[in-house]
Amino acid sequence: MTEHPNQPVRDLTEEELLARIIPRLPQGPATVLGPGDDAAVVAAPDGRFVVTTDVLVEDRHFRRAWSSGCDVGWRAVMQNLADVAAMGARPTAVVTSLVMPPDLEVTWVESLADGMAAACAPHQVGAVGGDLSSGPVVMISVTAHGDLQGREPVLRDGARVGDRVCHAGVLGRSAAGLAALEAGIVARCHSPSEPGQVTDDQRHLDAVVRDAVGGYVRPDPPLAAGPAAAAAGVRAMMDLSDGLLRDAGRMARSSGVQLDLSGDGLRPDVEVLAELAQACEDDPWRWVLTGGEDHGLLAVFGPDQELPERFREIGTIAAHEPGRPWVTLDGAAPPVDGAGWDHFAPGAMS
Amino acid sequence: MTEHPNQPVRDLTEEELLARIIPRLPQGPATVLGPGDDAAVVAAPDGRFVVTTDVLVEDRHFRRAWSSGCDVGWRAVMQNLADVAAMGARPTAVVTSLVMPPDLEVTWVESLADGMAAACAPHQVGAVGGDLSSGPVVMISVTAHGDLQGREPVLRDGARVGDRVCHAGVLGRSAAGLAALEAGIVARCHSPSEPGQVTDDQRHLDAVVRDAVGGYVRPDPPLAAGPAAAAAGVRAMMDLSDGLLRDAGRMARSSGVQLDLSGDGLRPDVEVLAELAQACEDDPWRWVLTGGEDHGLLAVFGPDQELPERFREIGTIAAHEPGRPWVTLDGAAPPVDGAGWDHFAPGAMS
């Protein structure tokens, strides 16, 4: 068949399309049997496995104008690996269902596979199977698996009064990146031939925009911090996908405690985004407190536990009193609405 | 919130919708940790697990006019459990991504959960987690897991010359059901007050229609036959999802043999559908040879192996000669096009 650069997937049979995808995907050390049969086989050395699934839907979670195939593949995998890490497990394998419009370019799908591979390979995760179908928009559902390495899974209900609330990763970065894209704020490429044209402030803002948009299209949470926290005896842990306030509220309710965030602890996250927020006419505290999709790890350690690498303290655990908020900021109700991301709210897009 | 019968999902938050779904879903004996945390934990007693994923897309794989929520939930689970069984494994747990339009009725989603539960519960399969999102059409991606119980996975490449080709389940039933729906042929309800109005022929056709449409909306493959075949030393096995000729071709190529189907072996499957095929002006051989989505098990046993329950012989394995078809019927090229189901073919609907 003659190739042309915009060849749509409808020109290929399912087997031909699989032949374009599968060689791009890595197999990991846990892969006993990879793609090609009715099902894959994955090692589960301690006799259990962790499993989680998350879906990305075009025009709901991403736009093809803003995210390349590579970005979407990366993000679809990474948001699942973060859930595995949040249980204290090491990710081992993913399977994927991919729905796509018949006019989607084959090169976009190849790029998606490359993005999945880029997210999997450094963590030795195998992409062991999948299913393809056509549909009205791109939808990618990834199921990720992990190995608890003999430890107990880390749940959300273990926080106790006096514990320290910690975080590993970034906060508000993805929300800031989306806001920049929506406001049409683009990081400029600075030509060395016109050094006088660009102020240091402009260079700084461009770097922040680049970082924020990168955080939106390719979140890169510190996955290894999850098993490290579990090994260090973390009391409770979860992945932040729906925003700090909303997810912290879930942990607080699960544990029956009040989770008090520290303004000082969060200020560095806010300050790095302040200039961009001004450009977007938005509130950097809103991004940090309610922005979802950063997939960092919220973890609660005991007062005397040594924090593993990447974690820093952002609050403390107090007793919850009836009628009081589950999550506070410096002891008071947070200054922004904590609803965060709701998948069915009209017009929501993350 | 006041309930009304056609309440759409957009009226509920994600947590409220989950609260309607999760209590309807069963947990199985392999469920170590069910829904509610970042991920679930499932037992894998022999240190490995089988994993497979398959997606159903509205207006591609089903229409809401022809399949209830319950039917779609059943079929989404069952097509995956069949893949697990085809590896010789016992299914243990599923996770699900569900995408739905905001105006979908909550009752439809509850019905979908009931259908998933109905497919899982008899096999002691737990529905351990999932993800919800909105999107333009209903899309349900299920990932199923299974336990090999210490046996090796059964692949497609073990067929040898002289072996017997066997099948457990039904053939052509789903294709016949879809054809009946497309032709507007509906099984009538016969009132006992008008016994003289209905001929025995009509009663028989109605029973066939009911059975075929049932096979289309709720395929019910003999899952236990998979592990039973593995325990009996089956040489090769796969689930028939894309039609007998197409899937048998995959097995033949994997094994490097010719798979010769027996007209006598398949005739009972054809005969039961003959009358309905006439009413649909279709060919019952085409349904039996190329109809997909029945999810029965195609299995190859050695010449002297005792067949486990549910399996019957439908062919033999011969040497493959270059230039000859991989799959034959009574030694000759099959009388219908063997392409079967292709997910990207224009206008295809199964």
From TrEMBL, chains A, B:
Enzyme Commission (EC) number: 2.7.4.16
Keyword Translocase in annotation: no
Reaction it catalyzes: thiamine phosphate + ATP = thiamine diphosphate + ADP
Top enzyme category: transferase
Coiled coil start-end: none
Residues the entry annotates as binding Mg(2+) 2: 54, 83
Keywords: ATP-binding, Kinase, Magnesium, Metal-binding, Nucleotide-binding, Thiamine biosynthesis, Transferase
GO molecular function: ATP binding; magnesium ion binding; thiamine-phosphate kinase activity
Binding of substrate, residues: 61, 293, 341
Binding of Mg(2+) 3, residues: 38, 83, 239
Residues that coordinate or bind Mg(2+) 4: 38, 52, 83
Alphabetical list of CDD domains matching this protein: ThiL
Annotated residues for binding of ATP: 130-131, 156, 241
PurM-like N-terminal domain ranges (all copies): 36-146
Top-level taxonomic group: Bacteria
Ligand binding (Mg(2+) 1): 53-54, 131
Family affiliation: Belongs to the thiamine-monophosphate kinase family.
PANTHER family in UniProt: THIAMINE-MONOPHOSPHATE KINASE (PTHR30270)
HAMAP family noted in UniProt: TMP_kinase
Anything else known: Reaction mechanism of ThiL seems to utilize a direct, inline transfer of the gamma-phosphate of ATP to TMP rather than a phosphorylated enzyme intermediate.
Identification of the protein by name: Thiamine-monophosphate kinase
Organism annotation: Ruania alba
Name of the encoding gene: thiL
